[in-house]
C-alpha cells in the first residue's frame, strides 16, 4: 500500500470571540466556527497505532483557541495567525486549509455567516 496524501481534520470548532472592525463587535463579540484540514504524514501512525506518532488534536485545539482569544479587526488576520502558529508548534504539518466563519456578521441581512478560507503551505518543511 502506498500513501499518496494524508490529512488530520477538525470540524466546526465553536468559539465566542471579539473580532471585527466595528467597536460593538469588539465589546459584545460573536460566535465563530472554524474547520481545519492539516496536511500531515500519518504513515508512522498507521503502522504503530500510537498517539505519539500523530498530531494531538487537543494540542492543535489549544493553539487555535489561543489565537481565537486574541482580538483582530479582520478574519483574514485571525486565520493567518492560526496558520503561522500551527506551523511553528507542529513543524511536521505540511499544509493548512483553514475555514473561519463569523456566524452573525453585522451586514444587515439574515445569513448563516460570512468568513474566510486560507490554504497555506508550510515553506519550512
TrEMBL record:
<comment type="similarity">
    <text>Belongs to the DHNA family.</text>
</comment>
<feature type="domain" description="Dihydroneopterin aldolase/epimerase">
    <location>
        <begin position="8"/>
        <end position="120"/>
    </location>
</feature>
<dbReference type="Pfam" id="PF02152">
    <property type="entry name" value="FolB"/>
</dbReference>
<dbReference type="InterPro" id="IPR006156">
    <property type="entry name" value="Dihydroneopterin_aldolase"/>
</dbReference>
<dbReference type="GO" id="GO:0005737">
    <property type="term" value="C:cytoplasm"/>
</dbReference>
<comment type="pathway">
    <text>Cofactor biosynthesis; tetrahydrofolate biosynthesis; 2-amino-4-hydroxy-6-hydroxymethyl-7,8-dihydropteridine diphosphate from 7,8-dihydroneopterin triphosphate: step 3/4.</text>
</comment>
<protein>
    <recommendedName>
        <fullName>7,8-dihydroneopterin aldolase</fullName>
        <ecNumber>4.1.2.25</ecNumber>
    </recommendedName>
</protein>
<dbReference type="InterPro" id="IPR006157">
    <property type="entry name" value="FolB_dom"/>
</dbReference>
<keyword id="KW-0456">Lyase</keyword>
<dbReference type="GO" id="GO:0046656">
    <property type="term" value="P:folic acid biosynthetic process"/>
</dbReference>
<dbReference type="GO" id="GO:0004150">
    <property type="term" value="F:dihydroneopterin aldolase activity"/>
</dbReference>
<dbReference type="InterPro" id="IPR043133">
    <property type="entry name" value="GTP-CH-I_C/QueF"/>
</dbReference>
<comment type="function">
    <text>Catalyzes the conversion of 7,8-dihydroneopterin to 6-hydroxymethyl-7,8-dihydropterin.</text>
</comment>
<dbReference type="GO" id="GO:0046654">
    <property type="term" value="P:tetrahydrofolate biosynthetic process"/>
</dbReference>
<keyword id="KW-0289">Folate biosynthesis</keyword>
